[in-house]
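In this notation, each integer encodes one residue's backbone shape. One such record reads:

___
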Amino acid sequence: MSNLYKYLKKYKKHLILGPIFKLLEAIFELIVPFVMKQIIDVGIAEKNTRYILSMGGVLVLLAVVGLACALFCQYVASRCSQGFGTELRSVLFCHINSLSMNESDKFGTSSMVTRFNSDVNQVQLGVAMLIRLAIRAPFLVVGATVSAIILKPSMSWIFLVAAPLVALVLYLIMAKTMPVYTKNQRKLDKITSIAREDLNGMRVVRAFSEQQREQRRFEDATEDYSHSVIAIGRISALLNPLTFLIINAAIVTLLYFGGQKIDAGDLTQGELIAFVNYMTQISLALVVVANMAVLFSKSYASAKRVSELLATESSVTDEGNCPVEEDDNAPAISFKNVSFQYGGGGYAIKNLSVDIYKGETVGIIGGTGSGKSTVINLIPRFYDVTEGQLLIDGADVKLYPLEQLRKKIGLVPQQAMLFSGTIRSNMKWRNPDATDEEICDALKIAQAYDFVMQKPDKLDSSVQQKGRNFSGGQRQRLSIARALVNAPQIVILDDSTSALDFATDLALRRALNAYLPPKTTKIIISQRATSIKSADKIIVLDKGEVVGLGRHEQLLETCDIYREIFMSQQKAPHEMQENNQEEEEV
């Protein structure tokens, strides 16, 4: 967890001043029993009203100064913990964004969200309590014990017995509970995962009337978490009763032996009251220590999880890479015996070797799980190839600075993702300086211009989170337009026209061929054979391997899988004839 300490360096003054002022408050608190002793033994015993009033003034002064120290410590602790939490969240957010898809898949979205929110909040609270209580509570215990020894050594044995007993209780309970807190955070990850999954798939859940089943699944997860928390609570609940039992037993012992010593003249009434006060201070301090033990156990478990995420390094890095000089004569994309596997599983792509030249339109088709999306995820280097080599414009993708590589590529993923803001702000993701004219050109190619211009605010129309105020087809067209702004050299459509009707799909492909620069390389992944039948080259995948490569007419004759896919999607003969005529026009 040492990688978290560096975020506290800028708050060194707070980490020093806070405990110092809390220590001063504790010192003033330890003086109070001595003042009370003097009031009883001198002021009350001698009926000296003036002395009682003057010492009462000292008590008020101690209370005011102690309060001022406590308030200053509270302010310092808040500044330090909130600043630390803010910086840690910023660093964690940047680090999460720097991780490759490989590491993101390993942790999972729900776990990263829990670490980013719940765990950082818990660590932040731990820092605040560290400044406010970590020094004060133990000092009060030790200080009260030492003060009692100084006041009357013959009675101090009671303190020396009570304090270690309480410490033993604390140790045993912490040893039982601390390992469980980490498990609890994992269970919280599961709850977050189920909730996120159900909220995202709410329409599917309702379409299948599976609300009750999903509710039971969520209840099972929360019940498991609840049982675990209750189990810890039962153990932690022993802290206060056992602590008070020991302390109250010590107070009773003090009163018993103190009363005997007062009768014998070896102890004054004021000294006995001071002893009781010191024991009360110890009891209150130990209650705080007990609660701190629980809090710090949670904070420690959370800090380990945050530290684990921060310590994870991305498997895809461009550190040390210089801008690459591109070879205009080389293929735009070249796969050389490329194989890839996710984690420790089997190969998703095996021995892929194909060249894609500048200006070509390439279609990729295959069954579910055939590796289509995996192929295009390798091009912008979301993942690194496991074996073989992937070249872009003659240079290995691993040699490219990621910014240079990804600026060449306009990628439209399977799931159309729009961000809250406006249409204009979404269109400027590839190029923040894009003009309205460039945006409108991209919208026209993507067949989105008409419905955007029909809106009252046009480009300034609001986009809600995930674009939920647009239909599926509109979201897809806006996502395509966003990728086309600033004319990327490589355009990749990953099954991103599935929500479009055949006419709009056809108009889109015509526009891509007509209006994009001649050297723009276009890769289209589609489940529809008609969407790629006019491509210059079609790659047919099956179980991660290329089983067909060529034009539509060639594959119909040589590739059984392609022919089966194509024929299964054809309907009546007259519809086939119309589709063929449309494709010939493209």
The two ends are 60 Å apart (CA to CA). The CA atoms of residues 370 and 543 lie 4 Å apart. The chain has a mean pLDDT of 85.
